[in-house]
Structure formats: structure tokens, C-alpha cells
Amino acid sequence: MKGREYVMTRKVYMDNAATTYTSPEVLEEMLPYFSESFGNPSSIYSFSERNKKALSKARQQVANALNADPDEIFFTSGGTESDNWALKGIAFSHNGKGNHIITTRIEHHAILHSADFLEKNGFDVTYIGVDDKGRIDLSELERSIKDKTILVSVMFANNEVGTIQPIREIGSLCRERGVVFHTDAVQAMGHVPIDVREMNIDLLSLSAHKFHGPKGVGALFIRKGLRIENLMHGGGQEKGRRASTENVPGIVGLGKALEISCSKLPEEHLRLSSIRDRLINGIKDAVPHVKLNGADGAERLPNNINFSFIGVEGETLLFDLDGAGISASTGSACSSGSLEPSHVLMSLGMDHAMAHGSLRLSMGESTSEEDVDYVLEVLPEIVRKRREMSPLWEDYLKKLEEVK
Ligand SMILES: *Cc1c(COP(=O)(O)O)cnc(C)c1O
User: Fold this and answer.
1) Whose CA is nearest to atom 5 of ligand 1?
2) Cα–ligand 1 centroid distance for 79 (angstroms)
3) What digits encode the pLDDT tens for the residues 318-374?
């Protein structure tokens, strides 16, 4: 695979949930729009014709991937903007009906911090909890819907632990109760099949750089007829709903990357699930006292692994793995570097020590069986050495002895 050459400077790149490289085929498709076809798609002259067509094509590609209509696709600057738009846009267009919003405790910060902002501006937000595998409780969601509820936002799949929510069921529930349903599908897009019609989704966020497209470009699906306030005010682009000259090369890349990942989805789902399970079982076999965080099998993204290693700090594992040429993460890229344990792992009911000992390995199209072999060769030894030096591990062993 050509893309592998990009990651060859690293022995193994296992942080695809943070970002992916732009595929060579995608880059090739984008290049003319930086140079010979640089025209502004809003201009009238024929020079811009190719740019207009490129935008329509990409809109159709995204619509195809979601079973949506091209008129329902709006390009944005990424997942964060799409999430902000969905929450603030619905809040400020539906405040005549009510001021209550429901989301979950394990959302990405693009949702949680938008919800904070809305709370400061007079909205009332309910945060639904999750079980120890990261699944929301549908009956809790049902009980939380009130007359004043205007929006439910539940992520399709979690970026740290990979748990997939029962989106279809949430969609039907919201439809029945007449509440708008948004899902942040940034991690799920291109990895699991998504059908906005069948799943009764009203709004959906996606981002190109999570499925081998470029960074800084995303989209929001907005169901036809849904009222939503604008987030970006200015020119008349995107049918007057999202101002700013379109990022044509980025949008072309997004469309192409999504088309490719959806066409390969069934085989990649199988391949990555099998690699994932081999790596999970390999780690469980080679390292005692570990805990897999998140759900199992079909309820988990095919490319996500998240383990807690008792008695070690996740950061020290990252450091040693990096030294061995393996790029991984402790959770979300945004919160690493902070000493606060992950809000997602804490919501799963984990204590601070376990949450600090977590490691996320996220795979992508470049991940091979050899990568898995290499991680299995290196990781158990790293954990063993770190535990030898760790007072936390010593304490844990003592406690085990006491229990006996
Ligand atoms: C990466 C990510 C985002 C943010 O997307 P950007 O394009 O980086 O702004 C939002 N939600 C989830 C679940 C993500 O994984």
C-alpha cells in the first residue's frame, strides 16, 4: 500500500483516532485546486466552472456515504465546527420551544464545551451517564426528555474507548418524541455503515482527517426542512448557511477520501476487527493485571483498543513506546499533556489510578499484521520494566497479598 511509505519514519503508527495521513489518491485529486483551478466557486465566469463542479461532486460523494440528499450536506472547517454549529444552531433556533438539551458525559470536548457555553447563556443541559463499557442507558435518555427538550446529542462512537452507541434506537426515540437528534460521527465515519434515513438522524458531524482526508475540513448533515441558526455569518456560500469562501481543495479531498473509505468499508471492517482482536488477546495473554476499556465485538469500533495497565502511568508507556518507534496515545490528543484523568474513563466508573494507566492504540488503513507482531514484541516488556520501578505496582501487589 502506497500510504504506508508516509508512516515509515515511525515503525508503527497507532494513533489514527487522533489523525490519519492524507491518502496519495486523495492528495492527487486535491492538487489542481491549489494551482491551475484556483478560481472562486462563487464567481460567474467560466474559469470557475470546474470549481463549482468539484463542490457538487464532493457534496454528492458525502450524500452517497450517508444515504442523504446533496442539498443536506454543508461543508465546514472540521468536526469541531460541525459540533458547535449543531448545538448552538439548534439552541438559538429552537429556544421558542424550550431551553433543554441532552447529551452524554463522554462526548468530545467540541460538544461538552459548546454545551458549557450554552449553559452560560440560559440553556439547561442534562448529561447522561454510561455503564462500565461506555454505553448509554436508553431508558435514562427516555426519562430525561421533557416538554422543553429541543435537542439530543449523542456521539456515534467514542474517540477514546471506541464504544458504539445504539444510534438507530436513539434516533427512533427522538423522532417519536419530536426532539432533534444530532450525532458526532467523527470517529465512526468510514469505519461503520451509517444511514441517516434509516437511523432517524437529523444532524451529523464528520471530519475528513479521521478517514485519510486532509485536516481542516468537515461537514454537517442537516436534514431537509430542519430550522437551524447560522454559526458563521458573512457571504452567501453554502446556500447562505455557512459563510466563507469554500475550501475547495479540502472539500474535494474530503469527498474522495470518504468515497474510498466507504467502498473499502466491509473488507476493512473485517480486517481491522480481526487485527484488533488479535492485539487485544495478545496483550491480555502477555501482560497480567490489565483491563480492556470499552465494549466488545460489534459494539466497538474495529480500529480502537484501549487498555488500563494497573500500576503504571500511561504517559510513561507512551514515552517508552515512542522510543521503540510506536506512536500511540493515552486518550484524546486534546487532553494529553494535562494531568487530569480522562473524563471518558472516569465516566466509565474507573478510579484515578486506572484512568492514568490507560493506553489507546488506534489503527487505520496502513496498519498491518506485522505492526501487531511488533507491538506484541515490545509492549509487554515495557510494562514489565515500568512496573518494576513503580511504587503504585508495589502497593497493588501488597494489597493482593493482604486479600489472600
Ligand atoms: C477528532 C474529533 C472531533 C474534532 O474534529 P476536528 O476535525 O479535529 O475539529 C470531534 N469529535 C470527535 C469524536 C473526534 O474524534
Assistant:
1) 79
2) 5
3) 999 999 999 999 864 444 455 678 999 999 999 888 888 899 999 999 999 999 999
